[in-house]
Task: structure prediction
Amino acid sequence: MVPLHSYLILSAILFSIGTIGVLIRRNAIVIFMCVEMMLNAVNLTFIAFSKHLGNIDGQIFVFFVMTVAAAEAAVGLALMIAFYKNRESIDVEDMKLMKL
Amino acid sequence: METFFFMIVAAVAVLAGILVITCKNPINSALSLILTFFCLATLYVTLDAPFMAAIQVIVYAGAIMVLIVFVIMLLNVRTEAGRRSSHSVLFGSLIGLFGLFQLFYLLNRSSLTGQKGAMDSDLINKVGHTELIGKALYTDFLLPFEVTSILLLVAIIGAVILTKKKI
Result:
């Protein structure tokens, strides 16, 4: 029986890796993938707690998080394609039109 | 034995996660991310959530990652050029590690409390995980479920509008 703490620690590590990826990478798609990884870390926490507390509600939340991730993937990738058509690049350094 | 298995899967998940942020080529990052998702699906199975594991593989590793890989190949994104970036790798890593230490601190300091519910392995084996999820989803969570359908509709319309010729 693996204790709940192990799952939470793994989840924390994955979430931090995702955070670091968002902060240090410049490719918009890689940043997007890091966000997906952070969402997955949260999902792991939800399911571990659901098992620990004997309550199914956490898994329903994972269901909704996955739906939001799917919607986010569709809209986010459409945004990136639109940006690439205008700028020939998906580097976040080039996304500075509103910068002073 | 179970702990050993958990350690192996967790190590692979973390290693693949580190590969996601260190690979220069976005395709390699995407493949590593798929490996992370599969490791998480394995953990879901050990956590008595087989339906969630299936959804994880089908929706995340299947649908979303195929979409991402498709866009990477469509845009023909080359590896990041050696241009000087304003993002400091060192600074970003420091912030991330600081967050990690904060999370560890919280985990060690807090005690886990909460009321135990009725769901355990016996019930899941007897009734079935999918049926339990379905019952909860269509009774207690009916309104959020319907709102989710509106969210998906908005996402479809948004994606169609954004990829039009003139934006």
